[in-house]
Amino acid sequence: MLMKAITVDAQAVQRHRATILKCVKDSDASIQKRALELVYALVNDTNVKPLTKELIDYLEVSDQEFKGDLTDKICSIVEKFSPEKNWYIDQMLRVLNEAGNFVKDEVWHALIVVISSASDLHGYTVRALYKAFQTSSEQESLVRVAVWCIGEYGDMLVNNVGMLDIEDPIMVTESDTVDVIKIAIKHHALDLTTKAMALMALLKLSSRFPSCSERIKDIIVQHKGSFVLELQQRSLEFNSIIEKHQKIRSALVERMPILDEATFSTRRAGLLPAAVSTSGGASLDLPNGVAKPSAAPLVDLLDLSDDLPASSSSDGDFLQDLLGVDLSPAPTQSGLGQIQKAGTDVLLDLLSIGTPVQSSSPTTEILLPSQNDKSPIATLDARSSSSSLSAQATSSARAAPMMDLLDGFGPSPLKPEDNGSVYPSLVAFESSSLRITFNFSKQPGNPQTTLIQATFTNLTPNVFTDLIFQAAVPKFLQLHLDPASSNILPASGNGSITQNLRVTNSQHGK
Known about the structure:
ARM-type_fold, 3 domains, 7 strands, membrane, Leucine-rich Repeat Variant, Immunoglobulin-like, alpha+beta, 45% helix
């Protein structure tokens, strides 16, 4: 009844606010939930502070079954009606301190965005989080926000930068700050995301606190043998940065730029796509939500689709499409305008799927005789000339290989034995320092497997050492990587490294 009365006379219901708050603390779960909904409806700009205080105070003693709903409502109220950032941060830290394990990811993400944008509160916030961590290190969301802030603003914590009038100075050494991150990494109850964030914070502190750099390195190195791949990889990479790249380390780990609250709020509301295509052409909807331009002819190289159009695009689209495999067929245009140069047409039909490319050759005229020619004798003559014309097409296969790839032009008595086809090379990656070229081939009798030879060329005057090449494919593809010919890449193009890849499509022909 009171929920309906709010829409008629909100002030009349406000007079019963104290009674409603008592109902939130009732032992009956149904009364608790109804009262909480009513309190949420009563909140406005004038009463947000006292109501929030009452709810957070009750959060400290509420039952575990009710903490989730209560936490969600408090966070929603604070975000919606917060009069100032200082108050918002204080209330959110109280919630994280009492019920951090019930706070959803988007809530602490939003808190980090607000902290980042409030540059005058960085010192205050990191000190408050440091003190909160001492008493509530088991609250996951609190630990995540704390390690992020300490990694970004740890120097402000040690030097008491940005003190407010309401604060008392605290004595925190560089070693104390590192201890906090170490505790977060070692805590058995904290998950992979928290520990990964803690390792990143340590890397940043290694630049902020040069005197603790060796100790930080020792902590990071302890995870080189971790069974968790993410931690192992971060440990190896961060250790390499500390040991070998000290000149650029400070630039790599400098503070994050201020995060835009409006952009975050819009994306959180689902009004912005995860990624926007900059192509002017038609786009295809992919499962991961990324908008992509029409697929290039090379997209069929690994049987990624069945009837994709032969539209012109850069060779780089082939690599982009490796992980966007569920491409929807796009309508093709009739006519000879769709025919591309011979090299790319070969790759279009590499795996014997798709539609034969139209051609203006005599062979096409045989397959599609003119409808105006209704004479049986003329038709017979056309059929009788099929054999000689097919032989001509076979003899000129090297000049126009797309003519016979699909065996779609009838039997050819002069067709040579297929000992494995070789297709045009593709520059998969090129920068001012490195070029990677892919050479493709297929073995006879094994159409579902594509052989790729990767060639690495060093374009700089410096020798590259410890070269490692990694690749990923969708689940329905099987990738086999042979060892590279070497891990040392000579300078200035004076030599190259090759590595063979074998990709097998388990859905070939489906």
